[in-house]
Amino acid sequence: MAAKSILFSKTWIVIPGFNEAKYLATVLKKTLKQTPRIIYVDDGSHDHSAQIAQKYLEHVIIHEVNLGKGAALKTGCDYAFNFLKAQAVILMDADDQHNPAEIPLFVQQLRKGSQVVLGARSLFSKMPLVRKIGNAFTSAVMLILFWRYIPDILSGYKAFTRRAYRKLYWEATDYSVELEIAAKIAMNRLQFSLVSIKTIYHDLDRGMSIIDAIKVALKIVSLRLGL
Ligand SMILES: Nc1nc2c(ncn2[C@@H]2O[C@H](COP(=O)(O)OP(=O)(O)OP(=O)(O)O)[C@@H](O)[C@H]2O)c(=O)[nH]1
Ligand SMILES: [Mg+2]
């Protein structure tokens, strides 16, 4: 029992953000209801996202220039594991598409011993069609190339332990980080558990673009070829 509570108290939420002034305060207030252990990494926002975060949080890291989601996540995870001595992290987006009330579901799985916990949205939920197709396609390609089925690879809501982080450690600085994490799960034969998360969409005109999707596709191939 003691070990379980240690894990919970050493679990940190890592939130990367780029120009999220519209939603950030809401996200942080909701997340603070679940835990005070939150790290926000501002990735060179042009709006006042960083100042909003500083109003609510002790741990705000600022990239002076925009380096990309993968880079921001790495900054946040390195800070959590190396500086704050976290045992596990939960990654959450800053755009209010992830429901902080679901954080306990991830913690529950970590407590049960999962090294990796993936938030998965139903393909039958209200997700824009292109995203559904992109998600199904990514999972199918991953299955063919790595012989491992991983649902909702594009979801950024996930958790992993310190031990798993060593194996997941990614090079990707952009959106393809989600894919690299999935590929590393497959290549390292890491076990994962799934938690069912809500599908939330506010702004359909933002998020991954076609260019991002093409980069993701190229990334899958290069990961398989070991480039
Ligand atoms: N650090 C960093 N974060 C980013 C960048 N672009 C997006 N993000 C953050 O990453 C999270 C997800 O970004 P979105 O653009 O919503 O992408 P997505 O959620 O995969 O795509 P959708 O499903 O369409 O919403 C949000 O918290 C963004 O603030 C970036 O360049 N740097
Ligand atoms: Mg989003």
Structure description:
- Helix 2 runs parallel beside helix 3 (49-56).
- It contains nine helices and seven strands; from the N terminus they run H-E-H-E-H-E-H-E-H-E-H-E-H-H-E-H.
- Helix 3 (49-56) links the parallel strand 2 (38-43) and strand 3 (59-63).
- The protein has 227 residues and is an alpha/beta fold.
- The radius of gyration is 16 Å and the shape is globular.
- The chain has a single domain (2-224), classed as Alpha-Beta Complex (Spore Coat Polysaccharide Biosynthesis Protein SpsA, Chain A).
- The site of magnesium ion has 4 residues, from loops.
- Guanosine-5'-triphosphate binds at residues 16-18, 20, 43, 66, 68-69, 72, 93-95, 97, 131, 154, 156, 206-208.
List keywords for this structure.
Spore Coat Polysaccharide Biosynthesis Protein SpsA, Chain A, binds guanosine-5'-triphosphate, 227 residues, single chain, 9 helices
* CATH H-level superfamily title: Spore Coat Polysaccharide Biosynthesis Protein SpsA, Chain A
Low-confidence stretches: none
Number of domains: 1
Q: What is the succession of H and E elements?
A: HEHEHEHEHEHEHHEH
Shape: globular
Find the count of extended strands (DSSP E, 2+ residues). Answer: 7
Strand content: 15-25%
Topology of this structure?
Layout: H1 2-9, E1 11-17, H2 24-32, E2 38-43, H3 49-56, E3 59-63, H4 69-83, E4 88-91, H5 103-111, E5 116-120, H6 129-146, E6 158-161, H7 162-168, H8 177-187, E7 193-196, H9 210-224
Parallel strand pairs: 1-2, 1-4, 2-3, 5-7
Antiparallel strand pairs: 4-6, 5-6
Helix pairs in contact: 2-3, 6-9
The chain binds guanosine-5'-triphosphate and magnesium ion (MG).
Guanosine-5'-triphosphate is lined by residues 16-18, 20, 43, 66, 68-69, 72, 93-95, 97, 131, 154, 156, 206-208.
